[in-house]
């Protein structure tokens, strides 16, 4: 008698295509509509109370198929950044210098491994809170995964230190110019005002997440016999020679130049890709490789990133279908009508959930602010909620689900790099996401009670 096959969760690509197909069907069922938009100071904003229905734009099967390459085209900058980063990392990985440096750090932290989690979480939370780290985290994932394994942590903890660390900063958004900055300008608030409360939120989120991961890691240590020579080196081979030091100098120097460029010169993905390309070339030459051998290793590393890169474009295809079907504004319109019926005491919480709902469909922080804040500000004024509280609700909702939903291209790429199926990640992280939500609601209720301002 044949055994009945147990049901298995579909491949992540299948899940994303399924969501895209569902949205294609929705373009036949949800009325098409649009808000009027104006451009002020180079930024496009929605005109409140300007929603109107337009002719239906149902998407067909061929439109669904076209959405995939269109999604890749729209995210091409990020896709190639991921592949270039993978090629560069492969060159440094094969040099052996990174392995030696990682094991050296692991040896120094022996007996104090628990400090690694809050430290790396804090570093990435600062990046998330000031620069809105997202795609930029992808190049750090392989490095931190190796460091985590070197001290006995599994891949869930390794990925979490990067992914959740940046998410904490984005959630609190204490000085993020792309989210809190744009939202406050639209709400006519002083730039970065109310930072005190957001810093408290950052600390609470960092503390709770650190405890969550430390507790998990104590019960899910990697057994010593699961560690192998390709991931962790023996103590007697970690002496760094001159070539190793030169390679590490280029590696660290590249990341420092990226940080300076982003903070001072408004660098974005294209400039970051250029820096990684230079790092890869220098890394190959310092490793003693010819230009041809350097290119071979670079291509080998880029190949390993094709899967994660494809997921970014595939996730984007969902948005392409919704935009072409013109159903996003209709969904936002109905959502804001519901918000107008809420009592003032719950309005901020309602705004938070509205932003959570909108975020997967408008993945850009500044784009979401430009669409939602011109609508949310009049609602806040009407319900007697301060504009600063409305901005806080936007900040908490913006990107809140990006750490768990499969439509987040960055998350899916991170999971592909870490070789973690999305269903397994969901089971690992959903409790923490619920805790984050409770923290957000708690602080929104406080903000409402104290008339969080200045106004």
TrEMBL record:
Kindly list the residue ranges recorded as spanning the membrane. Answer: 12-30, 156-175, 195-215, 246-269, 275-293, 342-362, 428-450
InterPro entries given for it? Answer: C4_dicarb_anaerob_car-like, DASS-Related_Transporters
Question: Does this UniProt record's set of keywords contain Membrane?
Answer: yes
One cellular component term (GO) for this entry is:
plasma membrane
Q: What is its main location?
A: membrane
Intracellular or extracellular location(s)? Cell membrane
Superkingdom assignment? Bacteria
* Keywords from the UniProt entry: Cell membrane, Membrane, Transmembrane, Transmembrane helix
Q: How does the record say this protein sits in the membrane? A: Multi-pass membrane protein
One matching Pfam family is DcuC
Signal peptide location = none
What the entry lists under PANTHER family is as follows: BASIC AMINO ACID ANTIPORTER YFCC-RELATED
Name under which the protein is recorded: C4-dicarboxylate ABC transporter permease
State the organism of origin: Aerococcus kribbianus
Recite the lineage of the species. Bacteria, Bacillati, Bacillota, Bacilli, Lactobacillales
